[in-house]
Amino acid sequence: MLQVQKQISVAIFASGTGSNAEALIRLSRLNTSYYKVVMVLTNKEQAGIYEVANRMHIPIEYLTDPKDSSRMGELLQKNNVQVIALAGYLRLLPADIVRHFDGRIINIHPSLLPEYGGRGMYGDTIHMAIYNDKKPYTGITVHYVDEYFDTGSGLCQSKISINECDTVEKIAEKVKKVEHEVYPLMLNQLCKIIYSQQ
Question: Which of 86, 102, 115, 196 is deepest in the core (most CB within 10 A)?
Fold first, then answer.
């Protein structure tokens, strides 16, 4: 079994329950992982991500002002962060952070972008729109992050059939399951490429 010698250091940005963050952390602890989660940053004081970070012994920092790029940059530099993974983080990143980490920030979105993307489109808002539009399918998109909502170039998409889902909750559950499988693998793939270039 491959044992990666030196892992790429990753910061997870999260605003919600932290289920995707937990999936990312779990994969990071396998021998075959090319990344190590060194910290979590959140813009919410009461988010469920605190419970996940504490349970999994990952340092977590609260950003009082998510637009304060100097504070964000300080924290990232202090922890030698090389890659950022957004996991339900609901704020735009400051432009200078995006530029500094160009090609090293990724996000997961619970639809097949560009459908159901943009400002205000996240979580159950998306699932409700898809349910109301009576779509037979939905999906997820893993993409690079730029200075706007959901417009960065795509890394991968997975289409998900939801014909049998008769509630918004069932759609959300099915999408979440695929997110937890695909996102850690895509982050690992990106970190493997960065690792090979060092």
Answer: 86
